[in-house]
Specification:
Elements lengths: L1 H18 L2 H6 L2 H11 L16 H20 L2 H9 L1 H6 L5 H28 L10 H25 L3 H17 L12 H7 L3 H13 L7 H24 L5
Helix pairs in contact: 1-7, 3-4, 4-7, 4-8, 4-9, 4-11, 7-8, 7-12, 8-11, 8-12, 11-12
Length: 253
């Protein structure tokens, strides 16, 4: 019971801090929304090789932008750990009579919730550009988006638990984000990539997240939905455990 309460407290604290900061609410969706407007609207009805017949480029791009939003939101959620360390709050919660695993899970759940909320804002905004999808897929899509957000929030926490410098953390996150994003097939079908590049994309968890979203939202993807769910589930489980271990063995100050 104490563990569940600790998770809920951490989640509620992060939610309050998020919704009290308008800049954070829109910060991670500006670039995806700009790309949707500039690229998606411009090439919205273009038929590109590698995209399933009957699917426009806008329909192909929207799941990619959802993945991009959750990638940015999750990876940079680790900044909250650095802020808490700087202001002494991390030390206070570390000496509280709750397990560090509960603290990590609370942070991961809150980070994932924020990522899904921002992704849903992008999904709603895409309606004004002409993108349409069935409302029946929303519950499954939200569940899958939570899974994707777990992965990248856990990665952000792993690095944040080992770093003390905010600038250094930002540099490392950008160094990781760019390859993950551009190898994910967010902007172009992975089938059009050279064979050796395509082989690398199969090691990118974001690729499975985006392809799974495409399977759910537009009904076509380069990777079967079952495989996407399996890979994302295993990745999330492993990375959450790794984040818990990293947090457990990290220095408080």
């Amino acid at each position: 019971m104490r563990t569940i309460k600790a998770i809920a407290v951490m989640w509620l604290r992060d939610m309050k801090r998020f919704f009290r900061s308008p800049s954070r609410i829109i910060g991670n969706i500006v670039i995806p929304f700009f790309l949707l407007v500039s690229i998606g609207a411009g090439f919205g009805r273009a038929m590109i090789p590698g995209i399933a017949a009957g699917t426009t480029y806008l329909g192909f791009l929207v799941p990619g932008m959802l993945g991009m939003t959750m990638l940015f939101s999750g990876m940079f959620s680790g900044l909250s750990v650095l802020w808490d360390r700087q202001f002494g709050f991390l030390k206070e919660i570390m000496v509280a009579p709750v397990s560090r695993v509960a603290i990590v899970i609370g942070r991961i759940v809150s980070g994932a919730t924020i990522g899904v909320f921002q992704a849903l804002m992008i999904l709603v905004a895409s309606q004004f550009l002409g993108f349409r999808f069935s409302l029946w897929v929303i519950p499954a899509a939200v569940g899958f988006m939570m899974l994707i957000s777990f992965i990248f929030t856990a990665i952000g926490l792993i690095f944040a638990s080992r770093m003390k410098d905010e600038q250094g953390f930002g540099l490392v996150m950008n160094f990781l984000i760019m390859p993950l994003l551009f190898l994910s097939g967010a902007f172009a079908p992975i089938a059009n990539l050279p064979a050796w590049v395509r082989a690398v994309t199969y090691a990118d968890p974001l690729m499975y997240g985006i392809e799974g979203m495409r399977a759910l939202i537009i009904g076509s993807s380069s990777v079967p939905l079952g495989i996407c769910v399996l890979v994302c589930t295993i990745s999330a489980a492993v990375l959450v455990l790794a984040a818990a271990w990293a947090f457990e063995t990290s220095e408080v100050v």
